[in-house]
Amino acid sequence: MTNNRLITVNQIPISVSTINDDDYISLTDMARFKGEQTADIIKNWLRNKDTLLFLGIWEQINNPNFKLVEFDQFKQQSGSNAFVLSPTKWVEQTQAIGIRSKAGRYGGTYAHKDIAFEFGSWLSPEFKLYLIKEFQRLKEQEYNTQSIEWHANRELAKINYKLQTDAIQQNLLLEIDKSAHANIYATEADMLNMIIFGKTAKEHKQTGEKGNLRDTATPLQNAIVANLEFLNAMLITQGIEQSERYNMLKAQAEHMKTTLQNNPTIKKLT
């Protein structure tokens, strides 16, 4: 689990974590709404027949490896006084993915947000509504933050583009007819487009997609664009030919991609 965040519902701090790009909410934290014996509260919810039916349907929709035979056995036992089911037993025997348990600082039982909301209904309809409200507030806040940071990265790329155009003007356009200037600027820009996006601005336009090619860039691509524009400006100033610059910049792009793709800030924006 990564990217742990906290929301507060009825004065109860509740952890939200990310697993495989999906949000999972701590059932252990939520269960404190009912009392301190959180493990027993979750087990009581799991032994409920309606709960198992919901979990089974969710897994069948989202999990191709879900074990239906084992699920049917649990379903038949549910509701009886002797039936007890823990999150660990449910996961181990059915290969369920909607519920996860872990140890450590943010340990406890977590569930996919769909399942967590269902648990919230069982705890209290009012609690569920406040949970949904706070979760939505968290997602809106994250979206706004990502949007601001994406635009900041995009603006940095635009600033470095100015460094590149200045280097072109001062080093590549000397004694070149003005009618060819626009083509030289475009060729330099498309050299980076090919390295980063695998296509030129013209080829992007021919696909029918709206907007500038670089406006569709991911946060990682924007970061690489900004760095390559700065490097290209330096290489132009040093008098290095475009063919050689292309190979050097392509190698740098691959290195940056490998280095930055697992960067926490980049992953947060993706």
Can you put this structure into words, describing what you see?
With 270 residues, the protein is α+β, with helices and mostly antiparallel strands. The protein folds into 2 domains: 122 residues, no CATH class; 126 residues, no CATH class. It is 63% helix and 11% strand. The chain contains 12 helices and 5 strands. Strands 1-2-3-5-4 form a 5-stranded antiparallel β-sheet. A hairpin with a 5-residue loop joins strand 4 and strand 5. The longest helix has 47 residues. It is elongated and about 90 Å long. The mean pLDDT is 86.
Features:
single chain; 270 residues; alpha+beta; 12 helices; elongated
Structural class: alpha+beta
State the end-to-end distance.
Answer: 16 Å
Task: Describe the global form.
Answer: elongated
Task: Specify Rg, calculated over alpha carbons.
Answer: 27 Å
Quaternary form: single chain
Q: How would a textbook summarize the main sheet?
A: 5 strands, antiparallel
* Beta-strand content: 5-15%
Contiguous low-pLDDT stretches (5 residues minimum) are none
Q: What is the element string, with H for helices and E for strands?
A: EEEHHHHHEEHHHHHHH
What can be said about this structure in brief?
The chain is of the alpha+beta class and 270 residues long.
Please outline the helices and strands.
Elements lengths: L1 E8 L2 E8 L2 E5 H5 L6 H9 L2 H14 L5 H10 L9 H8 L4 E4 L5 E5 H11 L1 H47 L9 H17 L3 H6 L12 H19 L4 H19 L3 H6 L1
Antiparallel strand pairs: 1-2, 2-3, 3-5, 4-5
Helix pairs in contact: 3-4, 6-7, 7-10, 8-10, 8-11, 10-11
